[in-house]
Amino acid sequence: MGANESLPGDGPIPEMHHYYSKFMRECPSGQLSLHEFKKLVGLQGLDPQGDLYIKRVFDIFDLNQDGFIDFLEFIAAINLVIRGKIDQKLKWYFKLYDADGNGCIDKKELLSIFTAIQAINGHTNMTAEEFTNMIFQKIDVNNDGELTLEEFITGVERDEDLMELITKSFDLSNVIKVIQNGRRHSV
């Protein structure tokens, strides 16, 4: 409601200068390493599963795969999480699950990433196994034990409950809020 309220659209993120100063304060070199990224989002000292998840998130944000997140990659990531359309987010989630990058998600990949997310978020009303089986039961249309990007997006978009579950489970906006607000107060 204030002067910095943004209009819908594709313009630059209004808080760009805020992100930039925070990014440069946390990361004077302009290159955020995995260790610094964990520090920035307050997720160091996780168990191995949690560490694996954060590493996957980092790798996906690291668009040019140079082992660092620069400011443009950082803003692209924030933009996706805050403003991304649902199919962009689903593509992003798919990349997150497809650990070996072969273009398909198998049960093992989904199970390991969901276990890792549970280790961080902690709250869920089903086990990682139940979650994985349910997803495959609902959207693996040809029953080959693998999900293609198309199967994943179509399946999730067709099922509102699944969409809500996936969006909630993999919501990174809490990470973004930490980045936006620092540690002083949580929104």
UniProtKB/TrEMBL annotation:
Coiled coil: none
EF-hand domain boundaries: 49-84, 85-120, 127-162
GO molecular function terms listed in the Swiss-Prot or TrEMBL record: calcium ion binding; calcium sensitive guanylate cyclase activator activity
Keywords from the named record: Calcium, Lipoprotein, Metal-binding, Myristate, Repeat
Pfam assignment, any one: EF-hand_1
SMART domains: EFh
GO cellular component: photoreceptor outer segment
Name of the protein described by the UniProt record: GUC1C protein
